Amino acid sequence: MRQPGAFLAGLRPARNSAGSRSRSASEFEGVRKAQGAQAKNRILIAIGCFFVFYAVIGGRLVQYGLRSPETVSSIARADQLLISRPDLLDRNGEVLATDIRTVSLFAEPNKIVDADEAVELLATVLPDLDMRGIHRKLSSNSRFQWLRRQLTPRQQSQILSLGIPGIGFRPETRRFYPGGPTASHVIGHVNIDNKGIAGMEKFVDGQGLGALAAAGLTINEDLEPVRLSLDLRVQHVVRDELAAAMDRYKAIAAAAVVLNIHTGEVVGMSSLPDYDPNNPVEALQKDRLNRMSAGTYEMGSTFKAFTTAMALDSGKVKITDSFDARGSIRIGGFTIRDFHGKNRVLTVPEIFIYSSNIGTARMADMVGIDGHKEFLTRMGLLTRMQTELPEVATPNQPSVWKKINSITISFGHGVSTTPLQTAVAAAALMNGGKLIEPTFLPRSVDEAEKVAVQVIDPSTSKSMRDLMELNVTQGSGRRADVEGFHVGGKTGTAEKVVNGRYSSAVRFNAFLSAFPIDKPEYVVLVVIDEPKPEEGKSSATAGLNAAPMVSAIVRRSAAFLGVKPHFGNGAQELTLSY
């Protein structure tokens, strides 16, 4: 039997083992807490790293978003390009001007590695580049330089294959004129930045498009096309006949207009020499002036139509009156004579069809200086014409009108005006006496009535239609007639001033006409500058050259204008087709 002490002694090791386990548990708990804290710290560090990483990415995205857009290295998709100008259409919807997509070559000199090598490589594709100028641009410290505007797709492809660092392409639009020079003086042209600088292109910019472009505002959808009053078919006829006449008569220039007398719409207008708006640098040549609206000329005997209308409308002269046209008129050191004088008393119709300077001067003298000046002003012949076309000249007249001025102006010398406003004034003589400012945009008869101004009595207009018809059937305008269309008109053979004096060898000829003269619809005015006698003829008067030009234009364009021919009295109408 064990002693109690031995039993107690056997129990001591057991107490020591329990204490050891207690200490081990305490130590494990401490380690566990330490490891948990360490893991927590690692998670926080990882979260912080992720936060910093994504914050950097976000910051860079914001930075890229605030930067200006990078230019692209090729043409963008069609729906990404901005149409900067509206199409120009003729009255029938034919395209006269439109935008086409192209690219322009630029450089970022700060990214060019070797300017010499870049120039040499570019020269293989663009051999006409100004090498020195391009090298100077590529060697500069700038960040952007234009190298060549409006490249062809092939040029772009070839340059891309060269792989030159710092060279890129920017999408642009280029104005394209399908008809070339056919209507250049009316349509006008744009500069390298596609901004209108002449003709109706400039007018369109003036309606707000230019201001938007200057402000950098564009839209990503097609603009509404602008329809003009021109008929491309008539326009082609007019230009074709002018070109043929210049060649036939060896003239230095020619121009013509076809004008609707009831609406003031310009249906066709051309001036030669002209230019191709696809190559607008041609417009800078001296002889490329738009003679119809931007040139002023003494219109010669065509002005006798206005003098006769003035005399009749004043009530001081009747169509049955007669005037002494014998001899000459001596005034202010000048002698007024008739070109083909009849040397007898002439009636008003005879004065008109024989184009008598003396008879016309006597009618103007009856009206008086003040009345003469007032009438021409009322007809719009002495003030600047109002229309959409920007290129419009201001007429020239004497600063002080004296009797000699009134007399010479009566037969077309002493006042210079534009051929277009001469045609506009003639339309008022034909349409019942209403002056309607011309327009190059479509205009209805009702719209024209709102802007029309009654300038002469309808009875005067009727008399002038009769006189114009008489001049073609019996006077100097015979060669203007077209069977079935009853053309009426007045010739004008004006001597030009050479070295300060009028020269009979240098002339500016015109024929002012309307058709069908029994019920006029259109005025046609042609002018030809310094024509030479046609082969086999000894003279170059307006009746020999300007009148046949009108005949050709009327004959070829009447069907396009919707004018039907009439043959005989009550004959059946014939519809012509071309």
Q: What is the β-strand count?
A: 18
Summarize the main sheet: 5 strands, mixed
Low-confidence stretches: 1-15, 68-83, 570-578
Helix % is 25-40%
- Number of H- or I-type helical stretches: 16
Strand pairing plus helix content: what structural class?
alpha+beta
Structure report:
The protein is of the alpha+beta class. The chain folds into 2 domains: 78-227, Penicillin-binding protein 2a (Domain 2) (Alpha-Beta Complex), CATH 3.90.1310; 234-557, DD-peptidase/beta-lactamase superfamily (Beta-lactamase). Helix content is 39%, strand content 18%. The chain has 16 helices and 18 strands. The strands form 6 sheets. Strands 1, 2, 3, 4 and 7 form a 5-stranded mixed β-sheet that branches. A 5-stranded antiparallel β-sheet has the order 9-8-18-17-16, sandwiched between helices. A two-stranded antiparallel ribbon has the order 5-6. A hairpin with a 2-residue loop joins strand 11 (329-331) and strand 12 (334-336). Helix 7 (232-249) packs antiparallel against helix 16, helix 8 (304-314) packs parallel to helix 10 and helix 8 crosses helix 15. It is elongated, with a radius of gyration of 42 Å. The protein starts with a helix and ends in a 21-residue tail after the last helix. 41% of the residues are buried. Residues 1-15, 68-83 and 570-578 have low confidence and may be disordered.
Indicate the topology.
Blueprint: H1 4-66, E1 88-89, E2 95-107, H2 115-125, H3 131-138, E3 145-151, H4 153-162, E4 167-176, H5 184-187, E5 189-190, E6 196-198, H6 199-214, E7 226-227, H7 232-249, E8 253-260, E9 266-272, H8 304-314, E10 322-324, E11 329-331, E12 334-336, E13 345-347, H9 348-353, H10 357-367, H11 369-378, H12 403-410, H13 419-430, E14 434-435, H14 445-451, E15 453-454, H15 458-474, E16 488-498, E17 501-515, E18 522-529, H16 542-557
Parallel strand pairs: 1-7
Antiparallel strand pairs: 1-2, 2-3, 2-4, 5-6, 8-9, 8-18, 10-13, 11-12, 14-15, 16-17, 17-18
Helix pairs in contact: 2-3, 7-16, 8-10, 8-15, 10-12
